[in-house]
# Entry
Amino acid sequence: MDVRTLCVAGVMTMACSACTQGTPAALSGGAVPGNPLTPTAITIPLNVGTHLKGQHETPPHDTQAQGQAIFQVSPDGLSVSYRLIASDIDNVVASHIHRGVVGVPGPAVVFLYGNAAPGAGRHDGVLATGTLTAANLIGPLAGQPISALVALIESGEAYVNVHTNDGVDPPNTGPGDFPAGEIRGQL
# Structure
């Protein structure tokens, strides 16, 4: 299961030092005889978020649009819940998590929103919420467990972007018309 472990031994050591007047055993994280406070580990789900802006896209875009994407891995590691918020953005047609490092475009690995018709107009607020499982993975992650997506996120090799399209040729004429992505945030 891909989760992060938070070790609270340091916190417990601080508590123990207060109880034992700072003995060397307490300060080094060791158990102190007769002291009920001993170091322990707590497992928590992976929580990650990113702020999406036009300047983070590849190439960068001059836009007032921005967004927030928030993800949480379930305790059993078999799903990822998300919330995608976008504001000051027009003509949203899709949103994905892509495989790619900062400054490099990459293939989509899961849909977060879409595909919607071009030219839909202004959006401000929650764009999508949901729960992802292995069945939702596409492209290079198709057929893999959700832990493959979590590994990309943990390694910094994933980003979220929101695609826009006004439905009028040519593409890439300005805000509301960036089919390859108007705003992006690295995970």
